[in-house]
Design brief:
Distance between the termini: 22 Å
Oligomer: single chain
Number of strands: 0
Strand content: under 5%
Organism: [Clostridium] symbiosum ATCC 14940
Order of helices and strands: HHHHHHHHHHH
Keywords: Membrane, Transmembrane, Transmembrane helix
Helix content: 55-70%
Shape: globular
Number of helices: 11
Protein name: Sodium/glutamate symporter
Largest sheet: none
Radius of gyration: 21 Å
Length: about 325
Amino acid sequence: MGGNIMTLWTVFTDVCLMGMVFLAGQILRAKVKFFQKFLIPPALIAGFLALIFGPNGFGIIPFSSSLGTYASVLIVVIFAAMAIGDKPAKGALSGPAIGGMFFNITGIAVLQYAVGMFLTVYVLNHFYSLNPGFGLMMATGYYGGHGTAAAVGQAYEALGWSEATDLAYTTATVGIVGGIILGIIIINWGARKNYTNYVRSPKALPVSMKTGLIPKAEQSTSTTGTISTICADPMAFHLALVLVPSILGYALSKYLAPIIGVEIPAFCTALLFGFIMNFCLHPICPEQKKASLREAPDTTIWKHYVTLPILLL
């Protein structure tokens, strides 16, 4: 596995190492009170472990130099799975509640973009030589999260800004850590003032939410089986449902590039095929099972956290 040559064993080794780091993150979340108190995600804990013990830290965990390239591929799978499980809102859900949420979310996004661009153009550019897209990074990470960070970062890298993905991941990580810590502070304050409706104190949160492990008495069946294990493995079948729109999106992106003169990001076309797949599944696949398909990208996103520290240094 020398140099930058990526082999199948390179990928296999990286995935196994990431799995080990992620399990360590989950164990720490289940055992360490500090992580439970601030609800720090195991994926984020795993990212910091990778930073400390990876190639850019003590060098104990031998991640390959190819690890930083995985995000551009994984984001295609994530976007392909996003649409699977969606269903149109019914009349009761499409009124003032959705309208209020739309304007609230849009207002937050516009404010973050406006502040970022204003500071970049009128303040920071007087002290530093910044890329014109720098002003968009705050909203990309804070409002969008790691999925949006990967997507926007890859788009900017295609335009020649090589540090875009690193910066986007940084803002997303700062956003999630800051949001969690500030959120806990606000919850504590609101609970003391009796402003909360469902939780009187963070101490009243269920054990499963603190540790991430659901006690046996609270466990329940989350999906309905639709595939006979005699015929096919359900996990393999569901993975195929996500991978098909992923490869179709990638193929369409490459096919259209020479025709229109612009390469549409593969995650965009994968999202399109994801909606098509969802439309085809709607008559035959229960909502519970489609919901389980959307959990797959959630388990993939933690790899962005693991990759982030290695990209930063």
